[in-house]
Amino acid sequence: MKATSSSDTPKAFGRRTTTDAATGELHLDLKGLKCPLPALRTRKALAAAAPGTRLVVDCTDPMSVIDIPHLAAETGSCFEGRTLDAGVITFRLRKANS
After folding, report:
1. CA gap 84, 76 in Å, rounded
2. Which residues contact residue 26 at a Cβ distance below 8 angstroms, ignoring those fewer than 6 apart?
3. 14-65 pLDDT, tens per residue?
């Protein structure tokens, strides 16, 4: 699996943004950011992503469990789920086909 780092990615939306070349997933590292920044950066990444792109968003802000699913519904994107591991909340979203 080859990934490009935020320095290779034209737009960095989080502390670190990577794109998985094999799957086309966009990974946003938003750990340490507080509300409303995780939702705002996720919204910006969704707006720039191609339709059908999957975003994998890592957050530590507890409010993100409300904000990110709400953002997905508001933008028409598909909320594919979330997991919690060692205080990191990982969300999976897919941008809607316009």
Report:
1. 24
2. 17, 18, 19, 45, 49, 53, 54, 55, 56
3. 566 778 777 779 999 999 999 999 999 999 999 999 999 999 999 999 999 9
Cα(25)–Cα(75) distance, rounded to whole angstroms? 18
Side by side, which strands form the sheet with 26-30? 3-4, 16-20, 26-30, 54-59, 88-94, 78-85
Residue with tokens 């996720």: 42
55, 65 Cβ separation under 8 angstroms: no
Beta-carbon count within 10 A of 86 CB: 5
Q: Model pTM? A: 0.82
CA distances to 1, 73, 75 from 42, in Å: 23, 13, 11
Q: Report the pLDDT value the prediction gives residue 13, as an integer from 0 to 100.
A: 64
Cα–Cα dist 89/63, whole Å: 10
